[in-house]
Structures are given as C-alpha cells and as structure tokens.
Design brief:
This protein is an alpha+beta fold. The protein has one domain: hypothetical protein PF0899 fold. Helices cover 25% and strands 28% of the residues. The strands form two sheets. It has a three-stranded mixed β-sheet with strand order 2-1-6, covered by helices on one side. A hairpin with a 5-residue loop joins strand 3 and strand 4. Helix 1 crosses helix 2. The two termini are 32 Å apart. Bound molecules: zinc ion. Zinc ion (ZN) binds next to loops.
C-alpha cells in the first residue's frame, strides 16, 4: 500500500534522527504533507501509531501540516490552485486558474517530509 510505504519511510527517518541524537524518546514529530500526495493526516497518524509500537517513537504526537498545491504556468501565473477534485481521483487534474492550461509546473503540494522532531 502506497500510504504504508510512505509512512514507513517517514518513520525510518524519524528513528534514524532519534538514534543519531541518542534520544530515549521521540515526543513530537512535525510533518508536511502536500495535498496532492492523497495522504490524509488521520490515516497517516493511524499508520504511524501502529508501526512505531515498541520503538522510541511510540506514543509520539504528530503535527501534520497539509501543504496546498501551487503551480507555475507559462502564462506567468505563479500561485495556488483554487479548485480541483481531490477526493475522486488519484491524480487530480491541475489547471492554471488564469488561462486553463493543464501543462503546468507543480511547485508545491507533492512533498511529504519530516520538518523536525522533538526528542527527550
Ligand atoms: Zn496559465
């Protein structure tokens, strides 16, 4: 499953950072997830809680920030995408709100990364 492998990679990064810092416990994890990844914070939290059982990150809190999609278009538009169908399609159609172009460069909204962790 897509979500589980991404969540697994995130937790690997968290545990790796915890180990490098000789952490006994990870208390909080700050994560940024782009809206276009089709990952939902509640679902991620659930997976994190499941896979961190028995690790130093067990019981950590997850602060998940959803990043809105941003695009850059040939017509010089550079900014957020107002509306797109996110729930019904795995890959939503991204269109320039100014000229309707679909061949646009996505500059934000596809990230999925750990910003920082709080350890003790
Ligand atoms: Zn445009």
């Amino acid at each position: 499953m897509h979500e589980v492998s991404i969540a697994g990679a995130i937790i690997d990064a968290v545990l790796d950072a915890a180990k490098k810092n000789n952490a006994e416990k990870v208390s909080e994890v700050f994560i940024e997830v782009g809206e276009l990844t089709a990952l939902y914070p509640d679902q991620l939290r659930f997976i994190f809680e499941t896979i961190t059982a028995g690790t130093v990150a067990e019981g950590a809190k997850y602060d998940i920030k959803v990043i809105k999609p941003m695009i850059k278009c040939k017509c010089s538009y550079n900014g957020p995408v107002e509306s797109f169908e996110k729930l019904h399609f795995f890959m939503p159609t991204i269109k320039c709100p100014k000229c309707g172009e679909t061949d646009v460069e996505i500059t934000a909204g596809r990230e999925c990364c750990v910003k920082r962790i709080k350890i003790s």
